């Protein structure tokens, strides 16, 4: 498989072939895996189905083993009937992000997209956009291929790991991939997708990974909700013609450098940030019995 070295490379290839970024990624995978496009779509459709089932299951009344997660998605969704919340698309995205993230905390089956800790962001964006605008399933599947290509570049040139780069590398990467893919879903150009990717990463530059009690629940679940909104915001800005002043690949490089400079206490060790607060320590004692 020929690796994608940059987002710019993806954009350039897409523009040269007058096609969306997803087409470049699919052709790449067909060549590497020696599979037909139908076979690839079938495999990706299985991932999409797992995402949907995680959303549906996570919406049910359940609690994680720690007791820190469960019920937020349903509580939030029920409040939407008051009519006091924002746009229908945003509220659906938040509900889905919370559902899948809580289902993950309850040991449910999810798709790491690109990680378990950020698993709610990408499906929240893709499902909410596809449902709102009644897009055909194939377009959603293509958007998954698009997001996979973006994550491949970020993983190669920076990191998608909270332990290595902080939450900016985890929820940030998920939001960046989701924003970029959402632009393609809405008929935006590859260049617009690149700007959406850059904007989403810029919005969370420096975000630390500070899981309370070392569990992927607090503040991770709610960060998935904010990550989905981050992605939608970046996509809308890009679709309106607003561009990132810093090119996307330089933003990815900057994220890597920030992650390198970040102390270990702020990278998934549960030694700093919110995890070091008095309340978090009490939670840790209750959960772990010490």
Description:
It is a single chain. The chain has helices at 7-16, 21-33, 37-58, 72-79, 88-105, 121-132, 137-157, 162-165, 167-185, 190-203, 220-239, 248-261, 278-288. It has 290 residues and is an all-alpha fold. The model has no long low-confidence stretch (mean pLDDT 95). The N and C termini lie far apart (49 Å). α6 (121-132) packs across α11 (220-239). It has 13 helices and no strands. Helices cover 64% and strands 0% of the residues.
| Secondary structure tally, helices | 13
Low-confidence stretches: none
The oligomeric status of these chains comes to single chain
What class, by secondary structure content? mainly alpha
Extended strand count: 0
Spatial shape: globular
Secondary-structure element string: HHHHHHHHHHHHH
The radius of gyration computed from the alpha-carbon positions, rounded to a whole number of angstroms, is 18 Å
- What is the distance, rounded to the nearest whole angstrom, between the alpha carbons of the first and last residues? 49 Å
Taken as a percent bin, the fraction of beta residues is under 5%
Q: Could you tell me the mean pLDDT?
A: 95
Query: What percent of the residues sit in helical stretches (DSSP H or I)?
Result: 55-70%
The main sheet comes to: none
């Amino acid at each position: 498989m020929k690796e994608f070295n940059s987002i710019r490379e993806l954009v350039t290839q897409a523009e040269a072939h007058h096609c969306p970024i997803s087409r470049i990624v699919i052709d790449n995978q067909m060549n590497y895996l020696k599979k037909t496009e139908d076979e690839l779509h079938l495999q990706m459709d299985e991932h999409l189905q797992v995402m949907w089932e995680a959303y549906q299951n996570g919406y049910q009344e359940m609690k994680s083993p720690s007791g820190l997660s469960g019920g937020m998605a349903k509580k939030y969704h029920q409040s939407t009937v008051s009519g006091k919340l924002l746009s229908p698309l945003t509220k659906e995205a938040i509900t889905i992000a919370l559902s899948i993230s809580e289902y993950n905390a309850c040991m449910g089956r999810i798709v790491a997209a690109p990680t378990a800790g950020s698993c709610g962001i990408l499906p929240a964006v893709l499902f909410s956009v596809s449902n709102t605008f009644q897009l055909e399933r194939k377009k959603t599947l293509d958007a998954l291929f698009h997001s996979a290509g973006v994550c491949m570049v970020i993983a190669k040139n920076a990191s998608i790991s909270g332990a290595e780069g902080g939450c900016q590398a985890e929820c940030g990467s998920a939001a960046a991939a989701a924003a970029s893919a959402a632009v393609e879903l809405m008929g935006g150009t590859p260049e617009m997708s690149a700007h959406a990717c850059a904007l989403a990463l810029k919005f969370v530059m420096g975000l630390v990974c500070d899981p309370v009690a070392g569990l992927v629940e607090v503040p991770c679940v709610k960060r998935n909700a904010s990550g989905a909104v981050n992605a939608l915001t970046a996509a809308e800005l890009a679709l309106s013609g607003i561009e990132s002043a810093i090119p996307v690949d330089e933003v990815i490089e900057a994220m890597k450098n920030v992650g390198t400079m970040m102390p270990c206490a702020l990278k998934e060790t549960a030694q700093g940030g919110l995890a070091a607060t008095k309340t978090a320590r009490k939670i840790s004692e209750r959960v772990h019995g010490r």
